[in-house]
Each structure stands twice: as structure tokens, then as C-alpha cells.
TrEMBL record:
<keyword id="KW-0496">Mitochondrion</keyword>
<dbReference type="GO" id="GO:0004519">
    <property type="term" value="F:endonuclease activity"/>
</dbReference>
<dbReference type="Pfam" id="PF01541">
    <property type="entry name" value="GIY-YIG"/>
</dbReference>
<keyword id="KW-0472">Membrane</keyword>
<feature type="domain" description="GIY-YIG">
    <location>
        <begin position="113"/>
        <end position="204"/>
    </location>
</feature>
<dbReference type="InterPro" id="IPR035901">
    <property type="entry name" value="GIY-YIG_endonuc_sf"/>
</dbReference>
<dbReference type="InterPro" id="IPR010896">
    <property type="entry name" value="NUMOD1"/>
</dbReference>
<dbReference type="InterPro" id="IPR000305">
    <property type="entry name" value="GIY-YIG_endonuc"/>
</dbReference>
<dbReference type="InterPro" id="IPR006350">
    <property type="entry name" value="Intron_endoG1"/>
</dbReference>
<protein>
    <recommendedName>
        <fullName>GIY-YIG domain-containing protein</fullName>
    </recommendedName>
</protein>
<dbReference type="Pfam" id="PF07453">
    <property type="entry name" value="NUMOD1"/>
</dbReference>
<keyword id="KW-0812">Transmembrane</keyword>
<keyword id="KW-1133">Transmembrane helix</keyword>
<dbReference type="InterPro" id="IPR003647">
    <property type="entry name" value="Intron_nuc_1_rpt"/>
</dbReference>
<feature type="transmembrane region" description="Helical">
    <location>
        <begin position="12"/>
        <end position="29"/>
    </location>
</feature>
Length: 345
């Protein structure tokens, strides 16, 4: 380089300098992308509330402390970590030592204004319960299940058997919007997704928001049959048997019946329009009778009301192979009016 011209030294220096600058810029871009992705996967603070995106069980790092606050950090037990890893969960919050008062306060404070899917885990048996909570109702679900025992009976029996200290309360996912009647189906769909993926042992119902698939155990069936025995029926029937009303009570009932206001014209009009007058024909085409209601037809020919309704749904309207019933409202409206008004004379 001593014998080379000055411009060669300068170009080498500038190229090395540009390479170093380019590498630094590339590393800065990578770091910024990583930070942004961590912010998006963790949480965004909006109006001092933690709002999480609705994910499809994407990978999210779980907390190994009982709370996200730095004040009272408690290490997550190894037993719970193994359960989380086996189930391949990515929880938002993990709460242990539920018998402590400060942990309950943390659950109350950190879940204010939030809604989502929660899990109650038995750390000894690895059984768990999954449920959903609407906006600002996560702590209510926690207290009803684990403290006041007003929730799942299976969880109640398990807590009494194993102790509250062997349970953990986990929030699996958060719903990003305020839960209303319109979007409540989305929250139930999210809960249903977790139920089908994790198949919890403590859940009786297999579908969120529905009793479909529930079957009574043999013990429950035996209790139901024992409750409807003849002795219980006779006991219920004898509660008011032989009792007589006092003359004052009879007089009060009589006065209320006599002073009962008459039916208004609007209600009478509704009854008139909602009744269904019918004509019953013999098989030879002669008229058997005209009736104001389906019940009157059933009484006249001594059959069930459902039989008349089934016959009206068919094209022929055949009843017991002896009569043909027809809806009068499809034939003559003036005649309907007269028959319907006869009902209220």
C-alpha cells in the first residue's frame, strides 16, 4: 500500500466503512421486528386495559410466575410447568397458591374488564376444567368454582378432596371485545375450540353453551327414579288434601272474581283472530259440524287434539278414516268472523 496511489487507500477504507454500517442497520431492523412481534403477541394497552388479539392457539410464551406484577412474584411449580408443556399450552396468566389472600386480590385486579377462556387445573391428578367468562366476570367464575362452590360440582368435590393448594387457575386466552348478546357466540366458539382440543375431564358438557351430549350417571338415574316413587307421590298429594279454606278467604276470592275487569276490545280482537274455526265433513261430503276451535272438534268425535292437527297438515285432512277436517280460514272470511264472535258471546 505504500507504493499504491492515494485513491486506492480511500476506496478500501470507504468500502469497509459501508460494510460495517450496513451490518449494523440490518441488525437494528431485525431487533425492531422482534420487539414489535413480542408486543403484538403479548398485549397492547388501550385505556389502561390489557387487550389480547384473538388467536388460533398460536405459540405464545407462558409466564412462570403466579402473576405478571413484580411486587409479589412467586415461582411457578415444576409440576404445573410439566402439565403446561404436556398439553402444549400458551397461557396468558398463571395463578397458584390460591388459598392465599394476596393471590385472590391479584386475580381480581388483573382480570378487571377482561373476558376469555379459563382453566382450573388439579396439579396432583392432572385433571382440569375449562370455561368461559364474559367481560369483568373472570374473578366471579374463579370464586364461584373454587371458593363458594356454586359452580361445577365435580370441581367442588375435587377441591374438597385434594385441597385448594393443589389447584391452579389459568387464563388460556382473552377475547378482545366487550361481550354482548350479539358477539357472545364468538366467545362460546372459542371455548368450544378449547373443549374439543383439550377434552377436559372435569367438564360434564361436551359443547359450550349447550347440554347436548350430557348423560346422567347410573347413580343420578337411580336418584331420579327413587324421587318419583309412589310414597313420594302420595306424600305430595296429601299436602293439601282435607284442607278447607276459611270463609274470609272464600269471600275474598269471590269478590276478586266478581270485580274482575272485562276483556278489552284489543285482547278480544287478538283472541278472535288467533282462533282457528274448522268444518268437519263426512266421507260422503255432507257437513258433520262447524267448530270454533280444534279442541271442540276433538271433543265432538272423541279423539286427541294432536290427531286433528296432524290431519290439518295433510292435503286430504282425513281423520280416523271417517271424517275430513278443513280449515275455515282458507274458505270464507265473513263466515269465520261470525263463528269466532260466537265464542265470546
Amino acid at each position: 500500500y505504500v507504493d499504491s496511489p492515494k485513491w486506492i487507500n480511500r476506496t478500501i477504507f470507504y468500502t469497509i466503512f459501508l460494510i460495517i454500517v450496513y451490518c449494523n442497520i440490518k441488525n437494528l431492523i431485525k431487533n425492531s421486528k422482534a420487539k414489535n412481534s413480542m408486543k403484538n403477541t403479548k398485549y397492547n394497552k388501550l385505556n389502561n386495559k390489557v387487550i389480547y388479539p384473538l388467536n388460533n392457539l398460536k405459540i405464545r410464551s407462558y409466564n412462570t410466575i403466579a402473576s405478571s406484577k413484580k411486587g409479589n412474584e412467586l415461582p411457578c411449580s415444576e409440576r404445573l410447568i410439566t402439565i403446561i408443556k404436556e398439553l402444549r399450552l400458551n397461557p396468558v396468566y398463571i395463578f397458584e397458591n390460591l388459598e392465599l389472600g394476596n393471590i385472590r386480590k391479584q386475580i381480581l385486579n388483573e382480570t378487571k374488564g377482561l373476558s376469555g377462556i379459563y382453566m382450573i387445573v388439579n396439579k396432583l391428578t392432572k385433571d382440569y376444567y375449562i370455561g368461559s367468562a364474559s367481560t369483568n366476570r373472570i374473578y366471579a367464575r374463579f370464586s364461584n368454582h373454587l371458593i363458594y362452590f356454586r359452580g361445577s360440582k365435580i370441581v367442588k368435590l375435587a377441591v374438597k378432596k385434594y385441597g385448594l393448594n393443589n389447584f391452579a387457575f389459568i387464563i388460556l386466552d382473552l377475547y378482545p371485545n366487550i361481550v354482548t348478546k350479539e358477539n357472545n357466540k364468538e366467545l362460546l366458539a372459542l371455548e368450544d375450540r378449547y373443549l374439543k382440543l383439550l377434552l377436559p375431564n372435569y367438564n360434564i358438557l361436551t359443547e359450550a353453551g349447550s347440554s347436548f351430549g350430557y348423560k346422567h350417571t347410573e347413580v343420578d338415574r337411580q336418584k331420579l327414579t327413587d324421587g318419583f316413587n309412589d310414597a313420594r307421590r302420595s306424600m305430595i298429594g296429601s299436602l293439601n288434601r282435607g284442607k278447607k279454606l276459611s270463609p274470609e278467604t272464600i269471600e275474598n276470592l269471590r269478590e276478586k272474581g266478581l270485580n274482575k275487569p272485562s276483556m278489552s276490545s284489543e285482547i278480544e280482537e287478538k283472541y278472535i283472530t288467533n282462533t282457528k274455526p274448522l268444518i268437519l265433513y263426512n266421507l260422503n261430503g255432507t257437513v258433520y259440524g262447524e267448530y270454533t276451535t280444534i279442541l271442540d272438534v276433538a271433543k265432538s268425535i272423541n279423539c286427541c287434539e294432536k290427531t286433528i292437527r296432524r290431519a290439518l297438515k295433510t292435503k286430504k285432512g282425513l281423520v280416523n278414516r271417517q271424517w275430513i277436517v278443513k280449515d275455515l280460514s282458507k274458505t270464507n272470511k265473513e263466515k269465520i268472523r261470525k263463528i269466532r264472535k260466537q265464542l265470546f258471546k
